[in-house]
Each structure stands twice: as C-alpha cells, then as structure tokens.
Design a protein that fits this description.
Blueprint lengths: L1 E5 L9 H13 L4 E4 L10 H11 L4 E8 L5 H14 L4 E6 L4 H7 L8 H15 L22 E4 L4 H7 L5 E3 L7 H17 L6 E8 L8 H12 L5 H7 L9 H13 L4 E6 L5 H10 L1
Parallel strand pairs: 1-2, 1-8, 2-3, 3-4, 4-5, 5-6, 6-7, 7-8
Helix pairs in contact: 2-3, 3-5
Amino acid sequence: MKLGMTLPLMEPGVNREVLEAWARAVDQGPYASLCFGERMAFDNPELLTLLGACSAWTERVRLVTTIIVAQLHDPVMLAKALATGDMLSRGRLTAGFGIGGRIEDYTAAGADPAGRGHAELARRVGIMKRVWAGEKVVDTLKPVGPPPVRKGGPELLIGAQGPKAIRSAAPWADGISGFSFNLDLKDVATSFDQMRHAWAEAGRPAPRLTTAFWFALADGGQDARGQMERHLRHYFNWIEPAALEAMIPVTGFTGTAAQLKSVLARLQDLGTNEVHLIPTSDDVSQVARIADLVG
C-alpha cells in the first residue's frame, strides 16, 4: 500500500512559501503522491494554477487532484489544462473528478446546479477523453492540444459515494478517490467491494482503490482534537451548525503516530492501494513525522 500527502490548502492564510515547502518535502520523502483538491467559494488557491506550480516544485511524486468538480469548468478548456499539467509533470498526473457537495461553488463559478449529477460528469469526461485522443471535438483547424504524456490521457479517479454513483463511473474511471469522515473501516470495505463488483460488471480491469482522511497527531502533548476542531470549523463553513457540532467529535484521526500506523495497516488489509492523508495544520514538520512513521 502506498501513501500520499495532501497540501494544507484549506488552512487560513496559506501562501506560496508554505505550499512550496510542503511540495518539496513530500517529493523528498517516502510518499507516492502529492494531493490537492478544489473549492470555489473559499480562500484556497485555484487548483489548475497550483498544478503547474507543483509540476515545477516536484520531480518524483504523482500529482493527484482530489477532486476537480468537472461541472465548474468548460470540458475542452479543462482537458487542455490537465494535459498541460501532465506534460509539465512528465506524465505524473492523476485526475480525480466528482460532482461536488457545495451548491455555492456552482454559484461562484457561474455553473448551473441542475447539472450536478453523475451522468453529466460522465458526459464531460467523455469529451475530455476525446480531446486527449486527438479528436477534433470543436470546429477548429487543428485539434486541441497538447497531447497528454500517457496515451488516452491521465489516470482518472472518481470521488463517488454510494452504489449508484460507483456504477455510473465504472465505464470511464480507473479507480476511486475515496474519503472516510469517521474512519469506519466497515464502510470503506463495503465501498471497495461495490467498486470491484461494478468494475467487473463493466468488463473493466480491477479498480485502483484509494481512500483519504483528516489527521492530527497527538504525540508530544499536542491537542490533536482541538487542532482537528479548529480546522473543521474553518473548512465546513457551509454546514448547518447542528450538523457540524455532531460531526466534530467523531471526524478524522486524532491519535498517536503508533495508532495511525495501526490504522494504515488495517486499511492495507482491506486491499487499499493508496491512502491520502489530509493535514489539519500547515506545520510542515508533519511531513517528516509521518515519513519517520512509515519508513
């Protein structure tokens, strides 16, 4: 099982210095990937611009978008931007897509929330795949380029929750960009089983199984739960107060490094291909602490 680290994009006041330090530290460690996701109506950096920067700041790790909300973008422009990121990173891009959980992001992007569905996501991915294959999807003298490094386009993951969404993605996705709020490993196992079954029914190769969760380490007398609460209150600015209060005590991992290692071992036993850790602080020393943990 491989391990990825997410940039602390959703921390308040994050800047170039923080992002570059994290990207370079992850690239130099035992990590398989550097991850970053998308929000619109928030104070985080824009994802596609960041993809270009991370391509320059790193040399080894895969760059994983967890996730891009495809309906917030023109599909041809998005295909061009991702192919450019793939070219700049020398083929290290994995593109994760989803429909997004925030209507306000659609509003901020001028997108129609009525298109927030998995059928529309699949349609847009289909257009992007045609662009990456070199087809002329628009009436122009030449196809839209550049061509991606990997023939047919980058590896694609789906941020899907539930059997219906998983079945919808089986014809086009290479795997899942999963997420666990409360680290219920039975739910993770169920989702993985649904993925395997859906991909087999669609006649596809076995899916790539990834999952992610927030973490705050409790070693050294740190108030891990307090750190987690601060982060979640900042990030979940759109959640109803009562729902947020119910989530905070049970969301994310807030144990010791040894306990985290045990959780990772159990996820490996479920057949997980990769875990993407999500920090709840912009302190770059966490990158080395996790690296020491996993060797």
